C-alpha cells in the first residue's frame, strides 16, 4: 500500500472520531490503532485465510472503539 493512501484512511478515521466528540489527541491515537488493526487483520487474512476468526476479531475491535466513543472517553495525558 502507498503511504499516502494509508495516511488518508487514518486521517478519515481520526476526523470521524473527532466529529463523534473524541478529543483530537485521543482521536489521533485511536485512529492509528484502528488503522493498524485493519492492516494487521488483512495481512493475517492473506496469510492464513481464516476469515471467520478474523471477522470476529474485527467485530470485537470495532466494538471496543465504539465503547470509547459512546462513553466519551479519551486517553489520559500519560497515554498520549
> How can the largest sheet be summarized?
none
Structural class of the secondary elements? mainly alpha
Share of helical residues: over 70%
Provide the succession of SSEs.
Answer: HHH
Topology summary:
Blueprint lengths: L2 H17 L4 H25 L2 H21 L9
Helix pairs in contact: 1-2, 2-3
Description:
The chain is mostly helical. Helices cover 79% and strands 0% of the residues. The radius of gyration is 13 Å and the shape is flat. The chain starts with a helix and ends in a 9-residue tail after the last helix. Mean pLDDT is 87; it is low at 74-78.
Task: Please give a quick description of this structure.
The protein is mainly alpha-helical and 80 residues long. Helices cover 79% and strands 0% of the residues. The longest helix has 25 residues, at 24-48.
Which features does this protein show?
single chain, 80 residues, mainly alpha, 3 helices, disordered C terminus
Amino acid at each position: 500500500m502507498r503511504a499516502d493512501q494509508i495516511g488518508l484512511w487514518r486521517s478519515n478515521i481520526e476526523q470521524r472520531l473527532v466529529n463523534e466528540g473524541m478529543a483530537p489527541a485521543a482521536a489521533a491515537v485511536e485512529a492509528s490503532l484502528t488503522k493498524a488493526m485493519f492492516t494487521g487483520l488483512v495481512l493475517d487474512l492473506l496469510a492464513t485465510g481464516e476469515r471467520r476468526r478474523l471477522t470476529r476479531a474485527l467485530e470485537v475491535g470495532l466494538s471496543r472503539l465504539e465503547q470509547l466513543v459512546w462513553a466519551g472517553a479519551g486517553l489520559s495525558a500519560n497515554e498520549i
